[in-house]
Amino acid sequence: MNGSRLLPLVVLLTACVATSGAQYVSGRVSTAVYGWEQFDTVGVSQQRVRAYQTAQLTVSQGDFSLTTFLQGSTNLAGSFGDAGRVRFYNLYLSWLNIGKVAEVHLGRQSVYAGVGVGSLDGLVARARLLNNTLTITGYGGAVVGPEFTMPSKFADNAMYGGQVVTTALPGARIGLSYMKRQEERDPYWTIRARDTSFSPVPLYIEPSADAEELASADARYNYGERLSVYGRYDHDMLNERTARAQGGARVQITERIAVSADFIHRLPRVMYNSIFSAFVSNAVDELEGGVEYGFTPMVRAFGRVAAVSYTDEKSTRWTVGLNTGYATIAYAGSDGYAGELTSLSAQASYPLFGKVIIPTAGFSYASYRLSKESTKDNAIGVILGAAVRPTSAISFDVQGQWLTNKLMQRDLRVQARFSYWFAHRFSRTNVEGRQ
Questions:
Q1: What is the pLDDT of residues 122-158, one digit of tens each?
Q2: 199-239 pLDDT, tens digit each
Q3: Which residues contact 80 (CB under 8 A, 6 or more apart)?
Q4: Separation of alpha carbons 236 and 213, rounded Å
Q5: Residue 44: helix, strand or coil by DSSP?
């Protein structure tokens, strides 16, 4: 579903919501420019500037609302991929407070329901029962393609599933979820042997749709502010194997000292029937431990060490640093199969003039090599920027990024953005506005 198809629908749905009583309209519009110098060949570069226009809009009337988020982009200098496009990331109607327990959303929207994550053109329904201690979510629709277009065959591009979450046990949250998704692959022509004579003939291939079917369970338990425990298990039902197993705990030993431990076992999330499913997928196991020490509520030191296990190889990584609320400095490193790396990074931001101006700065230095046989290389990065908010409705953001490494003597990128927030209440007799 491209912009030319969705734009008339936006106008129609907005008119439907706006035909009765008082409406509340809120949203944000942003204009951004991103510029950089791209080297296509050695010693030959081209200046590129790309502009982005985004709009978020919600029109509500009582328990009904229309929400949309769209983005347009075009080239101002140079050429980079397409000249211009319009993408609708969200466009859905909502009916809230149905029987004081349920809500329904219809249209293009994002789904976050346990193991089910993605964008679909369809229906999401949710009910909160037993004094809001039980939440049931169900969804179904067509998968949104990589170019945010509607699929030609719904049966081969469907996504559906659900999640059940309960908080009935004090301090605990337990969830069960399920998701099944199919995505069609483009047909193509190729050359194949006719028979044992091996005479080449053209053949039209219509591959089966990629598919995945996952089930998941997760739980979290908090014992006051002293203890937090989390666990999750995802099962790949089509490949009949564990897709992910994760567990972690954090203990606040004293008011100043906290320790944590995390473990994760995961396999690459490969679609069934895809070309990547023909290759062997190996699991990666990570075990990480950490400690935090609070000098004050604003100043905390931290350290983490992790051991990463591959099929026949191992790697370690570690990080130590200090967080002051306004600035963070960290020294990190890794070695083994993942390569050798040591880095120093620092980021800082501080509000001025009652948060009207918030300058930001960042610096990073890294020394690395991909294997023991490789030579060491260095990389330096610098970030400078500021956010200016003269009013609650207007903001200006600008940031410059500079990088130098083995491949690029200099890489300078500049981003600038202007945003405007608005909220108005319309009625048949008057208009109340807030900017």
A1: 999 999 999 999 999 999 999 987 665 666 667 778 9
A2: 888 888 777 778 899 999 999 999 988 999 999 999 999 98
A3: 38, 48, 50
A4: 6
A5: strand
User: Which residues have CB under 8 Å from 77's CB, separation 6+?
Assistant: 35, 47, 48, 49
Q: Which helix (H) or strand (E) holds 8?
A: helix 3-17
Question: How many residues make up the chain in this entry?
Answer: 435
CA angle 243, 246, 252 (to 5 degrees): 170
Neighbours of 248 (CB within 10 A): 16
Residues 6+ apart with CB under 8 A from 232: 216, 217, 218, 219, 244, 245, 246, 247
Identify the residue with better confidence: 47 or 283: 283
8 Å CB contact between 299 and 323: yes
Q: Work out the end-to-end distance of the chain between its first and last CA atoms, rounded to an integer number of angstroms.
A: 33
Burial 327-351 (b: 16+ CB within 10 A, else e): ebebebbbbbeeebbebebbbebee
CB-side exposure of 119: number of CA atoms within 13 Å? 17
Region of residue 171 (phi > 0: left; psi between -120 and 50: alpha; otherwise: beta): left
CA 19/CA 21 separation, integer angstroms: 7
Nearest one of 179, 178, 182, 180 to 154, comparing CA atoms: 182
CA-to-CA dists, residue 269 to 213, 225, 232, 272, 329, angstroms: 11, 34, 16, 9, 34
Q: How far apart are CA 397 and CA 30, in angstroms?
A: 11
The identity of residue 261, as a single letter, is A
